[in-house]
């Protein structure tokens, strides 16, 4: 069984999935208190699905871009798992989890200050994630993080099948923290 965890924005997202299908998925709005509720929410999610941490084969975490603090919450847990002997800990791009197909798509995540994290895929080729000004993109034309929750679990499954993940547990910040 595989577990996906995303804390890179104002939500905690958990998805439990096999190699072929999504078993369960939840999205919890956090109001910036992720570090306070994360462990309890993870325990509740696993308990609801009759799983223990030891039964998870692979862990996948969103590495950003997104909230600086949110990314740190998730990746701290990822690194703690790795240090504790869990070898199958991977990261995925927060932008790429918005892509539900690999043809022509654009993804954006609010970077605050009238800026967006932006990435596109055309004919299966992914662009480098960048920051763009709000006025330089048609927001209606892009998959926004806030409007894509119903697709994230399936998108993660597809990214894992396509091996679009990394063993390098490092954040994808794009913009400076200050």
Your description of this structure?
The protein has 178 residues and is of the alpha/beta class. 25% of the residues lie in helices and 29% in strands. Strands 3-2-1-4-5 form a five-stranded mixed β-sheet, sandwiched between helices. The longest helix is centred in the middle third of the chain and has 16 residues, at 68-83. The N and C termini lie far apart (38 Å).
Main β-sheet description: 5 strands, mixed
Number of helices: 3
**Uncertain ranges:** none
Shape: globular
Largest beta sheet: strand ordering: 3-2-1-4-5
N-C termini distance: 38 Å
In which range does the helix fraction lie?
Answer: 10-25%
Q: What share of the residues does DSSP label as strand, in percent?
A: 25-35%
What's the rounded overall pLDDT mean? Answer: 88
Order of helices and strands: EEEHEHEEEEEEH
Number of strands: 10
Q: In terms of structural class, how would the helical and strand content be classed?
A: alpha/beta
Radius of gyration: 15 Å
């Amino acid at each position: 069984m595989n577990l996906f965890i995303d804390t890179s924005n104002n939500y905690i997202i958990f998805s439990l999935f096999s190699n072929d299908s999504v078993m369960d998925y939840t999205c919890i709005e956090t109001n910036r208190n992720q570090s306070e509720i994360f462990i309890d929410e993870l325990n509740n999610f696993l308990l609801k699905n009759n799983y223990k941490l030891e039964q998870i084969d692979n862990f996948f975490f969103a590495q950003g871009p997104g909230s600086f603090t949110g990314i740190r919450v998730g990746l701290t847990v990822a690194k703690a798992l790795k240090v504790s002997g869990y070898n199958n800990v991977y990261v995925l791009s927060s932008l790429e989890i918005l892509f539900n197909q690999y043809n022509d798509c654009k993804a954006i995540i609010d970077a605050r200050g009238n800026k967006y994290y932006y990435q596109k895929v055309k004919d299966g080729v992914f662009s480098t994630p960048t920051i763009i000004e709000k006025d330089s993109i048609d927001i209606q034309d892009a998959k926004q993080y806030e409007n894509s929750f119903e697709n994230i679990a399936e998108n993660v499954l597809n990214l894992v099948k396509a091996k679009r993940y990394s063993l390098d547990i490092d954040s994808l910040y794009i913009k400076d923290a200050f």
